[in-house]
Write a structure and sequence with these properties.
Number of helices: 18
Shape: elongated
Radius of gyration: 38 Å
Oligomer: single chain
Helix content: 55-70%
Order of helices and strands: HHHHHHHHHHHHHHHHHH
Distance between the termini: 17 Å
Largest sheet: none
Structural class: mainly alpha
Strand content: under 5%
Length: 405
């Protein structure tokens, strides 16, 4: 139906333009109009003579004058003189017509090619309520911290033998005294310096447990940051829980606000992420380390949210001050498509349970790639055709993603 309507609308525009190009300009010019006028005048003279309003001598004189003008007009039309511009044979040259038709053809083919890349023909509109529901389901079923870390390649950090010896000693000391708050804090920070982000957030979690009710927003923010780094920029549900604890204690905590915005951007709520980051920029100084990160990412988040962005927010960040230590986070917001692509590759290579297939369908829908969601749904139907329980789960996911009835 879509292509039928598109074809009809295109024909309504393309065909009249093409006909004008092929036919050229007007076929009747001034000379032809003069000839028709003089012929009418001759007929009028004969009618006046018949009615008796003209004498014979007057009629002959009038005929002679009109005939003279008629012959002159006929000569202009036949010879193609300037007075006959726009007459027989006048119009656009074939070169101009060919160029015009080529332009129309390129515009038509280009429009179809562009839509085939960015459009999803065959799908009905996706109401906002259903998109929000799909985003909520994606948040509820997205990978946990442990699963996310299994898909991450550990970073390559230059060895520091002295730091490694210090961390080894800290591990031993903390094992002997698990409630040593200072030792746990040092261990978490130095594990992170070595790139051992998983061990770092495990030590930080032990520190928070040892602190009990004394744990504040900075401790929870540190925990979330270490988890995000361990998952290569992905904000897991566990990291989000730590951020929630931090923001409850300090709603203006800038690092917690940054990572919370990152979580929202990754889980289908760029509209809230945009507002959160824009507010954080307004509350931050130009030298705050998260400002550069937000300015690089905010245009993409704003585009996904469908809201105009103040150009001032997208300016390149100022150069760092001498001796300034940057925030230890990835320079660019990790594209959630990387996580989805990793899941897709694993299912294609190794297969997996129907829950993973359902999560992949929902993930593609949240990212706006409903064509990919439809492809995964069709493949899943073939894979689990004989499994009624799996088909129930997959069908529900496909309906939420608007790729199944």
């Amino acid at each position: 139906m879509f292509w039928l309507v598109a074809t009809i609308l295109t024909a309504m525009v393309f065909v009249p333009l093409a006909m004008v190009m092929l036919r050229g300009g007007p076929q009747e010019g001034p000379a032809e109009k003069d000839i028709a006028l003089y012929k009418d005048q001759l007929a009028e003279v004969d009618r006046d003579l018949a009615r008796g309003t003209l004498a014979e001598a007057e009629a002959e004189a009038a005929r002679a004058e009109v005939a003279r003008r008629l012959l002159a007009a006929d000569r202009r039309a036949g010879q193609g003189t300037p007075g006959a511009a726009g007459g027989r044979g006048a119009g656009l040259s074939w070169g101009v017509r060919a160029a015009g038709l080529a332009t129309l053809a390129v515009a038509l083919v280009g429009a179809v090619a562009l839509y085939s890349q960015v459009g999803v023909p065959g799908y009905r509109d996706w109401p906002l309520a259903e998109r929000l529901r799909a985003a909520q389901n994606f948040r509820a079923t997205r990978p946990g911290q442990t699963q996310a870390e299994t898909q991450v390649t550990p970073p390559k950090i230059p060895r520091d033998a002295e730091l490694e010896d210090l961390v080894a000693q800290l591990r031993t000391a903390v094992a002997d005294n698990p409630n040593d708050l200072r030792g746990l804090g040092l261990l978490a920070r130095n594990e992170m310096r070595l790139g051992n982000f998983t061990r770092a957030h495990e030590a930080q979690a032990r520190l928070i447990a040892a602190l009990g009710g004394r744990a504040g927003p900075e401790e929870y923010t540190d925990l979330a940051e270490m988890m995000v780094l361990a998952a290569d920029g992905y904000v897991s549900p566990e990291a989000e829980t730590a951020l929630t604890r931090a923001l409850r204690a300090d709603p203006r905590n800038p690092r917690a606000r940054y990572y919370s915005g990152l979580s929202l951007a990754q889980t289908g709520r760029p509209d809230i992420a945009y507002r959160m980051w824009a507010g954080l920029l307004q509350d931050s100084g130009p030298d705050d380390p998260w400002v550069a990160l937000i300015r690089r990412q905010l245009p993409r988040v704003a585009a996904a949210a469908g809201v105009p962005i103040d150009e001032a927010l997208a300016l390149a960040p100022p150069p760092p001050l001498p001796g300034q230590v940057p925030l230890q986070v990835p320079e660019d917001m990790p594209d959630p498509r990387a996580m989805v692509s990793s899941l897709s590759d694993r299912l294609a290579r190794e297969g997996g349970p129907p829950e993973d297939w359902a999560r992949l369908i929902r993930s593609y829908a949240v990212l706006g790639e409903r064509g990919a969601a439809s492809t995964v749904w069709n493949e899943a139907r073939k894979t689990f055709a004989d499994n009624a329980e799996a088909m129930r789960l997959l069908t529900q996911a496909a309906r939420e993603a608007q790729v199944a009835q």
